[in-house]
Amino acid sequence: MALDCEITCPLGSECEEIRGGKVYRCAWFVKIIGKNPQTGKDTDEWGCAMQWLPVLAIEIAKEGRHQAHAIEDLRNHVVTGNNNMASVMLPITKAMRGRINGSNGQAKEIEHDDSSHS
Protein backbone atom coordinates (compact mmCIF):
# COMPACT_ATOMS: atom_id res chain seq x y z
CA MET A 1 0.00 0.00 0.00
CA ALA A 2 1.50 3.30 -1.14
CA LEU A 3 1.16 6.29 1.12
CA ASP A 4 0.77 9.84 -0.10
CA CYS A 5 3.32 12.27 1.28
CA GLU A 6 2.13 15.77 2.11
CA ILE A 7 4.73 18.43 2.85
CA THR A 8 3.78 20.71 5.72
CA CYS A 9 5.40 23.78 7.22
CA PRO A 10 7.67 22.94 10.15
CA LEU A 11 6.58 26.20 11.73
CA GLY A 12 2.93 25.16 11.55
CA SER A 13 1.89 27.91 9.15
CA GLU A 14 0.30 28.14 5.72
CA CYS A 15 2.32 29.74 2.92
CA GLU A 16 -0.73 31.58 1.64
CA GLU A 17 -4.24 31.84 2.86
CA ILE A 18 -7.22 34.11 2.31
CA ARG A 19 -8.87 35.52 5.40
CA GLY A 20 -11.34 38.40 5.57
CA GLY A 21 -10.88 39.45 1.95
CA LYS A 22 -7.05 39.64 2.27
CA VAL A 23 -4.29 37.32 1.14
CA TYR A 24 -1.90 36.47 3.96
CA ARG A 25 1.43 35.29 2.60
CA CYS A 26 4.40 34.03 4.57
CA ALA A 27 7.47 36.28 4.16
CA TRP A 28 9.47 33.19 3.23
CA PHE A 29 7.11 32.26 0.40
CA VAL A 30 9.10 33.53 -2.61
CA LYS A 31 9.10 33.19 -6.38
CA ILE A 32 12.25 31.84 -7.98
CA ILE A 33 12.87 32.44 -11.68
CA GLY A 34 15.91 31.05 -13.46
CA LYS A 35 17.55 27.75 -14.29
CA ASN A 36 17.67 24.84 -11.91
CA PRO A 37 21.40 24.14 -11.38
CA GLN A 38 20.77 20.41 -11.07
CA THR A 39 18.57 19.87 -14.12
CA GLY A 40 19.33 22.93 -16.27
CA LYS A 41 15.59 23.40 -16.86
CA ASP A 42 13.91 26.79 -16.57
CA THR A 43 12.29 27.41 -13.20
CA ASP A 44 9.44 29.83 -12.51
CA GLU A 45 7.70 28.78 -9.34
CA TRP A 46 6.72 29.79 -5.84
CA GLY A 47 8.09 28.00 -2.80
CA CYS A 48 9.37 28.40 0.72
CA ALA A 49 12.75 30.14 0.97
CA MET A 50 13.90 27.38 3.32
CA GLN A 51 13.01 24.83 0.63
CA TRP A 52 15.10 26.76 -1.93
CA LEU A 53 18.25 26.92 0.23
CA PRO A 54 19.82 23.65 -1.00
CA VAL A 55 19.22 24.58 -4.64
CA LEU A 56 20.64 28.07 -4.11
CA ALA A 57 23.65 26.66 -2.24
CA ILE A 58 24.42 24.46 -5.25
CA GLU A 59 24.16 27.49 -7.57
CA ILE A 60 26.43 29.58 -5.32
CA ALA A 61 29.04 26.81 -5.26
CA LYS A 62 28.88 26.54 -9.06
CA GLU A 63 29.38 30.29 -9.47
CA GLY A 64 32.26 30.17 -6.98
CA ARG A 65 33.99 27.54 -9.10
CA HIS A 66 33.49 29.70 -12.22
CA GLN A 67 35.00 32.71 -10.44
CA ALA A 68 37.94 30.67 -9.18
CA HIS A 69 38.60 29.47 -12.74
CA ALA A 70 38.45 33.03 -14.08
CA ILE A 71 40.89 34.26 -11.40
CA GLU A 72 43.27 31.39 -12.14
CA ASP A 73 43.09 32.21 -15.85
CA LEU A 74 43.88 35.87 -15.12
CA ARG A 75 46.78 34.83 -12.90
CA ASN A 76 48.19 32.65 -15.67
CA HIS A 77 48.00 35.56 -18.13
CA VAL A 78 49.77 37.87 -15.66
CA VAL A 79 52.53 35.31 -15.02
CA THR A 80 53.02 34.82 -18.76
CA GLY A 81 53.21 38.59 -19.27
CA ASN A 82 55.72 38.96 -16.43
CA ASN A 83 57.86 36.15 -17.84
CA ASN A 84 57.78 37.76 -21.29
CA MET A 85 58.75 41.13 -19.83
CA ALA A 86 61.58 39.55 -17.83
CA SER A 87 62.96 37.82 -20.92
CA VAL A 88 62.99 41.16 -22.76
CA MET A 89 64.43 43.17 -19.88
CA LEU A 90 67.17 40.74 -18.80
CA PRO A 91 69.47 41.32 -21.81
CA ILE A 92 68.90 45.08 -21.53
CA THR A 93 69.76 45.02 -17.83
CA LYS A 94 72.92 43.00 -18.47
CA ALA A 95 73.98 45.42 -21.21
CA MET A 96 73.41 48.41 -18.93
CA ARG A 97 75.48 46.78 -16.16
CA GLY A 98 78.29 46.22 -18.65
CA ARG A 99 78.28 49.92 -19.55
CA ILE A 100 78.22 51.08 -15.93
CA ASN A 101 80.76 48.56 -14.56
CA GLY A 102 84.27 48.44 -15.96
CA SER A 103 85.93 45.23 -16.95
CA ASN A 104 87.44 45.00 -13.45
CA GLY A 105 84.00 45.08 -11.81
CA GLN A 106 84.48 48.61 -10.43
CA ALA A 107 81.79 51.20 -11.04
CA LYS A 108 82.82 53.79 -13.61
CA GLU A 109 82.28 57.43 -12.91
CA ILE A 110 79.64 58.81 -15.20
CA GLU A 111 80.55 62.23 -16.50
CA HIS A 112 77.92 64.95 -16.55
CA ASP A 113 77.96 68.05 -18.65
CA ASP A 114 77.31 70.85 -16.14
CA SER A 115 77.46 73.64 -18.74
CA SER A 116 73.76 73.19 -19.58
CA HIS A 117 72.71 73.87 -15.97
CA SER A 118 73.62 77.56 -15.81
Task: Describe the protein's architecture and organization.
This protein has 118 residues and is α+β, with helices and mostly antiparallel strands. It has one domain. The chain is 44% helix and 19% strand. The chain contains one helix and four strands, in the order E-E-E-E-H. The strands form two sheets. A two-stranded antiparallel sheet has the order 1-2. A hairpin with a 6-residue loop joins strand 3 and strand 4. The longest helix has 52 residues. 0% of the residues are buried. The mean pLDDT is 83.
Summarize the structure.
By secondary structure, this protein is an alpha+beta fold.
Q: What percentage of the residues does DSSP assign to strands (E)?
A: 15-25%
Strand neighbour order, sheet with most strands? 1-2
CA gyration radius, whole angstroms:
35 Å
The number of helical elements comes to 1
> Which stretches of 5+ consecutive residues score pLDDT under 50?
none
State the total count of DSSP E strands.
4
Q: In percent, how helical is the residue content?
A: 40-55%
How many domains? The number is: 1
Sketch the major β-sheet: 2 strands, antiparallel
Overall residue-averaged pLDDT value? 83
Shape call = rod-shaped
What structural class do helix, strand and pairing data support? alpha+beta
SSE string, helices as H and strands as E: EEEEH
